[in-house]
Design goal:
Order of helices and strands: HEEEHEEH
Number of helices: 3
Bound molecules: adenosine monophosphate
Number of strands: 5
Largest sheet: 5 strands, antiparallel
Strand order of the largest sheet: 1-2-3-5-4
Distance between the termini: 39 Å
Mean pLDDT: 92
Radius of gyration: 16 Å
Low-confidence stretches: none
Helix content: 25-40%
Shape: globular
Length: 130
């Protein structure tokens, strides 16, 4: 896709710090890492986000696992957060599907900072989903 920054990375038109490549997917370091080694796994074919079709997550999964192993073995990460923003209101900024693989280290565990402190009615949410 002409204006897609991640398609340009795949085509070699703009540089990226590649860390892993497979037939269907590539992985490279995020330019603005949340943690040391924060990487992105993207499909070679252009898809706007991981919910755009039924197969893209499946396509990315083996590369996500390989990248997580790499981050653990080479950087000493003890865990990873695996996140994909799908759609504008999720915070997605680049509309070529990608999975964030964020290595985590013992000195800064968890995602507690994601909580905004507001009350949530779990029964109401459950009722909507059941
Ligand atoms: P998202 O908010 O889920 O769309 O995440 C997009 C991510 O892509 C952000 O974390 C950016 O830092 C990252 N990003 C944008 N452009 C580049 C680039 N040229 N190379 C590496 N990472 C990038």
């Amino acid at each position: 896709m002409a204006d897609c920054v991640f398609c340009k990375i795949i085509d070699g038109e703009i540089p990226a710090r590649m860390i892993y490549e497979s037939e269907d997917a590539v992985a490279f370091l995020d330019l603005s890492p949340w943690q040391t080694g924060h990487s992105l796994v993207i499909p070679r074919r252009h898809v706007a986000d991981v919910l755009e079709d039924d197969t893209v997550l499946e396509t990315l999964a083996p590369t996500v696992v390989e990248v997580a192993k790499l981050l653990k073995s080479k950087l000493g990460a003890t865990a990873c957060n695996i996140i994909s923003n799908a759609g504008k209101d999720s915070g997605q900024e680049v509309f070529h599907a990608h999975v964030h693989v964020v290595p985590r280290y013992p000195d800064q565990p968890g995602l507690k900072h994601l909580r905004d402190g507001s009350e949530v009615d779990l029964d109401e949410v459950h009722a909507k989903l059941s």
